[in-house]
Amino acid sequence: MSAETPQEYSVDEEILYFFRKTSATQSSCDDYAQELVGGSVVPVTVQGVCSYTVYAGPNHEFLGLAWKNFQRVNPSDREAMFQRYESDLRQLFAAPPSCFRPVIQQSIESLLAIFSLLMVLVHKDVGVNDVMVDADDNHLVGVIDWAEAEIGPFGTNLHSRNS
């Protein structure tokens, strides 16, 4: 039985691996980030498995500006999204213990109000392993793993928040 030599992590290799699996290019992503916020574009030190994440802008504000740039969604796409959310909530309503049903019912009843909110980029899978914090000053420096991100109603990303 031979011991495997642990591989050393290489951000450059991780980025190359990611772009081999997609039709986008690193330069097109970097150009887009720079077009949105200006300044320099620098890949984060640890990349997500299914995403390419960068710091961008004069103050590395790419993430901070993304939610401010609401997206126009055509009515048929908005209706399809509404139907998907309603269907998902109705499936949840039928499945969990009854103690969760009042919250799910309230969510179903609130869908019209939720869909009146601005449509923005939402992460859809944010968790503690997706948040990067500066060890010296505890400031947020990035959020990674945007593979499930989509345009959706503002605030719908909060489903991943832990109490």
Automatic annotation (TrEMBL):
Signal peptide boundaries: none
Ranges of residues in domain Aminoglycoside phosphotransferase: 85-154
Record-linked InterPro entries: Aminoglycoside_PTrfase (IPR002575), Kinase-like_dom_sf (IPR011009)
Protein name listed in UniProt: Aminoglycoside phosphotransferase domain-containing protein
Organism listed in the record: Penicillium flavigenum
Family annotation (Pfam families): APH
